[in-house]
């Protein structure tokens, strides 16, 4: 009788947990992607603060991260225009989000893309998009799941503070 009760309890718990497992796993993927993006932005700031060498042993004037709807790039801002990612800048790393997670919106210009650069020694933060325009506000990057309406926001303030909501 005790074995039947234990098996019934396990069956009930399994029936409750298993259907929610995939949804929880996808929610964690969105959460991980948002935190990874915030860490990558902080990584650019840390590289600038540490005056890290790259690109053949030179210390670039700025490090930054370029964010568009389809591309995330960590770069050394070594070529003009100052503070904006260009194909001529040195790419440190190409970044990816997890499967089924994408950038839904960036609260800057059209098309939505931005370069966030950090210049030592402070590091001074510059947020620019589209031909050196400065939004004059915090950048809000909204990440979403392709199979849900759930979203996460990564916010980069004018002072360089990065947070996830």
Gist?
With 165 residues, the protein is α+β, with helices and mostly antiparallel strands. It contains one helix and nine strands, in the order H-E-E-E-E-E-E-E-E-E. The longest helix is centred in the first third of the chain and has 48 residues, at 2-49.
Question: In sequence order, what are the helices and strands, one letter per element?
Answer: HEEEEEEEEE
Largest sheet: 5 strands, antiparallel
Oligomer description:
single chain
CATH topology: the name is minor pseudopilin epsh fold
CATH architecture: 3-Layer(bab) Sandwich
- Mean pLDDT level: 87
Note the total helix count.
1
Number of strand segments? 9
Rg over alpha carbons: 21 Å
Low-pLDDT sequence parts: none
User: What would you call the shape?
Assistant: elongated
Sheet/helix structural class: alpha+beta
Q: Which strand order does the major sheet show?
A: 3-2-1-5-6
Describe what this molecule looks like in 3D:
The model has no long low-confidence stretch (mean pLDDT 87). This protein has a five-stranded antiparallel sheet with strand order 3-2-1-5-6, covered by helices on one side. It has a four-stranded antiparallel sheet with strand order 4-7-8-9, covered by helices on one side. The chain has one helix at residues 2-49, and strands at residues 63-68, 72-76, 90-95, 101-106, 113-119, 124-128, 139-145, 151-156, 162-164. It has one helix and nine strands. 29% of the residues lie in helices and 31% in strands. With 165 residues, it is an alpha+beta fold. 28% of the residues are buried. The radius of gyration is 21 Å and the shape is elongated. The longest helix has 48 residues, at 2-49. The chain has a single domain (22-164), classed as minor pseudopilin epsh fold. The termini are far apart.
């Amino acid at each position: 009788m005790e074995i039947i009760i234990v098996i019934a309890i396990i069956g009930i718990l399994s029936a409750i947990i298993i259907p929610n497992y995939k949804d929880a796993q996808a929610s964690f993927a969105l959460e991980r992607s948002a935190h990874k993006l915030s860490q990558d932005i902080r990584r650019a700031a840390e590289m600038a603060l540490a005056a890290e060498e790259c690109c053949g042993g030179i210390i670039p004037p700025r490090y930054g991260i370029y964010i568009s709807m389809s591309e995330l790039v960590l770069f050394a801002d070594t070529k003009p225009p100052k503070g904006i990612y260009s194909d001529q800048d040195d790419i440190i790393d190409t970044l990816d989000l997890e499967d089924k997670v994408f950038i839904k919106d960036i609260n800057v210009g059209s098309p939505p893309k931005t370069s966030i650069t950090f210049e030592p020694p402070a590091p001074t933060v510059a947020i620019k998009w589209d031909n050196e325009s400065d939004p004059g506000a915090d950048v809000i990057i909204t990440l979403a799941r392709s199979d849900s309406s759930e979203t996460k926001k990564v916010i980069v303030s004018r002072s360089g503070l990065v947070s996830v909501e």
